[in-house]
Write a structure and sequence with these properties.
The protein has 400 residues and is of the alpha/beta class. β4, α3 and β5 form a beta-alpha-beta unit. It folds into two domains: 132 residues, Rossmann fold (3-Layer(aba) Sandwich), CATH 3.40.50; 244 residues, TIM Barrel (Alpha-Beta Barrel), CATH 3.20.20.70. It is built from twelve helices and 17 strands.
Length: 400
């Protein structure tokens, strides 16, 4: 049996609501480790009174292993430095989307590196394997996360306190701005989902944020999950592609307690959607959002400025569309962002192919919490960095 400490980063510098939700990925890792009787604890630095992880254990009796989560590129620099400090006392294991493109660098620093799913590979790592480890799991092998105390987490959606949950992993779509590593989608067995929902009900949880990247991709699976959520009286939020939404689905969502559907619109221009390999037409997306509004469901839309093929005229159409959807189609919320070329995404790895120039790769400056709009780190063949920033600010001020 090994003593293992799992560390989630302090994201308060670049995420406005950092620390409002449980570190679900590490909770799954913890469950896998505990299944083999390892002694595991989770440290969420969003709630730490110190940013020095060494203060959390006696260096004279350190844990044998420390697992460091790097969920996004902005956390990479700090968490790598933290790992180097911890490496004087414990063996360090790193994983998460933010390691993409840095695997060899991390291995050369003496870390064991986990790519993709972490449950089985963390077990291999604590059993002595080193290097860069990768293995896709059966999603039902470790079905229940080792949930932490809910007292320190306060994620609220539509006045309902929520916890995160997944019913599937992976996304088969290849959007050019997305760095998702898992292209094969796996769906959890309904019996596992039922068990977790019953546990959440025992904990008096009222709301659930379903993290699935496209909850409606497999409609039979989605309908079954909706039914189980409805039976237990949960309110819930989902992420969905507009093309996946039809009248039957919308009515089922409404009837079973869905309180919000978030839709990635990206741009009001089919030429742009084709350039980013979105896999759906603007008309499909708009129809889906209209359908949600007609059954009385609240929606949220996401738009990105700085995409390939997007010029000033095209970008302004996005602002006009957002205004229309809010005024006429029941869309309550809308977010506008400048394109961030994260490593592992097609744009991040091959920007020139998309007519994009990356100005710098100081990932810790890619996102800044509380900023009206961080300086864009790209310019394109169609828009300058200044134009991209101005468009984001214009959209946020005009779309009410």
């Amino acid at each position: 049996m090994a003593k293992v400490v799992l560390v989630s980063p302090d994201e308060r510098r670049y995420l406005a609501h950092a620390g409002d939700r449980e570190p679900l990925g590490l909770e799954y890792i913890s469950a896998a480790l505990k299944s083999e009787n390892h002694d595991v604890s989770i440290v969420d630095l969003n709630h730490a009174r110190t940013d020095n992880i060494l203060d959390w254990f006696n260096p004279h009796f350190p844990p044998e292993f420390v697992g460091i989560s790097i969920p996004s590129s902005p956390s990479f620099k700090y968490m790598q430095a933290l790992g180097l400090a911890i490496g004087r006392y414990s063996r360090v294991i790193v994983g998460g989307r933010g390691i993409t493109g840095h695997e060899i660098e991390l291995e050369n620093n003496g870390f064991t590196v986990i790519k993709g799913d972490g449950e089985r590979t963390i077990l291999r790592a604590v059993n002595g394997e080193k290097g860069i480890l990768s293995e896709q799991i059966d999603i039902d092998e470790f079905p229940m996360p080792d949930r932490q105390s809910p007292k320190q987490y306060n994620m609220v959606i539509e006045e309902t306190q929520c916890v995160p949950m997944v019913t599937s992993r992976g996304c088969p779509f290849g959007c050019a701005f997305c760095g998702n590593m898992a292209k094969r989608t796996q769906y959890r067995g309904l019996y596992n989902i039922q068990d977790e929902l019953d546990e959440l009900r025992r904990r008096k949880v009222q709301g659930i944020y379903i993290y699935d990247e496209n909850f409606l991709q497999n409609k039979e699976h989605a309908m079954n999950v909706m039914e189980e959520l409805g039976k237990r009286g949960f309110r819930y939020r989902i992420e969905a592609r507009g093309k996946s939404i039809d009248r039957k689905v919308a009515e089922m969502l409404k009837a079973t307690g869905c309180m919000l559907v978030a839709v990635g619109i990206e741009a009001a221009d089919n030429r742009v959607l084709k350039a980013i390999n979105k896999g759906e037409d603007l008309e499909d997306i708009i129809i889906g959002i209209h359908t949600l509004g007609r059954v009385g469901l609240i929606s949220k839309g996401y738009f990105i400025f700085g995409l390939p093929e997007q010029d000033i005229t095209s970008a302004k159409r996005s602002i006009d569309l957002a205004q229309h959807l809010k005024q006429r189609c029941g869309m309550k919320y809308v977010d506008f962002y400048s394109l961030t070329p994260f490593p592992g995404s097609p744009i991040g790895d091959n920007p020139e192919r998309f007519g994009i120039k990356i100005k710098h790769k100081q990932y810790d400056k890619y996102l800044v919490a509380g900023s009206s709009e961080p300086e864009p780190v790209i310019e394109t063949n169609w828009l300058s960095s200044t134009q991209i920033k101005d468009l984001v600010l214009k959209a946020r001020s005009e779309v009410k």
